[in-house]
Design a protein that fits this description.
The protein is 20% helix and 34% strand. It has helices spanning 23-32, 83-91, 95-98, and strands at 2-8, 36-41, 49-54, 57-62, 72-79, 100-105. A 4-stranded antiparallel beta sheet has the order 2-5-1-6. It has a two-stranded antiparallel sheet with strand order 3-4. Strand 3 (49-54) and strand 4 (57-62) form a beta hairpin. This is YCII-related domain-containing protein.
Length: 115
């Protein structure tokens, strides 16, 4: 099952003083086990562009759409047997302590044939 793992900042990170896990080790381990299919850090929110269409009019604005202190700073596309395995992968990511991780399964949509 595929999961999108959003890597986010958090205004209340873990206060444990132990060293964070090494991100390069996390990537290498999950790549080698075939659980991480893709992933990348995102550029700063100051580079974001929000696109909307309202009543047929294109609206483009600089910056992220949401006004929040927590932001998505990266993503990883996971292939896991189930949610429990995805949680285990997310638990060991450094940002699980320094920020937060959101796991979201891909929707199981029926095949749609194009005309």
């Amino acid at each position: 099952m595929k999961y999108m793992m959003f890597v986010c900042t958090d205004t209340e990170p873990d206060t444990d003083k132990a060293d964070l896990p090494d991100i390069d080790t996390w990537v290498a381990e999950n790549d080698a086990r075939g659980r991480r299919l893709d992933g990348h850090e995102l550029a700063a929110t100051t580079t974001a562009t929000t696109v909307r269409v309202r009543n047929g009019e294109l609206l483009v604005s600089d910056g992220p759409f949401t006004e929040t202190k927590e932001v998505i700073v990266g993503y990883d596309l996971l292939e896991c047997a189930d949610l429990d395995e995805a949680i285990e992968v997310a638990r060991t990511h450094p940002m699980a302590r320094a920020g937060r991780i959101e796991l979201r399964p891909f929707a199981d949509l029926p095949f749609r044939q194009r005309d």
